[in-house]
Amino acid sequence: MILNQWYSILPSKSIKKNQIVAVRRLNLDLALYRSENGELGCVVDQCSHRGAALSLGKVKGDCIQCPFHALEFDKNGKCTFIPANGKSSTADMTRYNVKKYLVKEANGIIYLWYGDEEKATEYLPFFYDYVDNSYAYSEIEDHWNSHYSRCIENQLDVVHVPFVHYNTIGRGNKTLINGPKVEYENNILRTSANNEVDEGQTPKSPEECTIKKTNLNFMFPNIWMNYITEKIKVIIYFAPVDDENTILYIRFYCKISKMRFINNIIAFFGKFANKIIERQDKKVVITQKPKASSLKSGEKLLVGDGPIIMYRKIREELKSKV
Ligand code: FES
Ligand SMILES: [Fe+2]
Question: What positions does the domain Rieske occupy (predicted)?
């Protein structure tokens, strides 16, 4: 994982008021909860007293209460009450505090700050310039037994399209890979497929190619957008569970019609098209070894893997910066 980043980890709608949800993300077992007033809290899912899962407890006001002996913890992980010691107790409870994590919400997504809290930034990564409330969207999720780096690379891979998706988005036997051109600007890595039927011509170099109107965009650390047309986009956030598992949240965005309910219907069906394509990818990506990708993996990459090489380089740089 790259440290000191906001990771998209879960849809906001997954946690209702007064509900606690146990989630594993970024190799951490977390108890995420929402208080009566709608605010989120996130603490380690392990009580400081005798190790029970806090996620099995209850939300009490702004606090989370352990199911075992009912110790209470606030959003800062501070222990606020120990019933066994009685209401009148004035003893210092600092040693019972639990680890808390910074969480924020925007765009219907819960973000978790992974790293040093003092370095947390205001900005939450998202494609704000491309989608807004005028779009309808519909979301599906799927679990992949893969490291999130492999899932992301798959979404930047223009070489696999005519093979893995031969009967869907890759129809037409366009196996020859021109470029692709890759850019990295304002934290967005951008590329576009420029594939052709192989009639014996020499592929164009990345320099001879341009970024097309339909293009692929990736924003560190874990969110991706397929700009299909001005009115249709697909956004995926890849929530890292641990070193071998990722949950993909895939959104189909649409504003083809002036009428919201029609856009809702299109988005609803659009997500099933996404699902067919995503399942084609998953079948192959989960077999990749090693589970995580890396710049020095020894894989024999092709010119057409340019976007993947760029992703690996930037990822490496970001990892070494912290
Ligand atoms: S284990 Fe949580 S209160 Fe005892
Ligand atoms: Fe694919």
Answer: 6-112
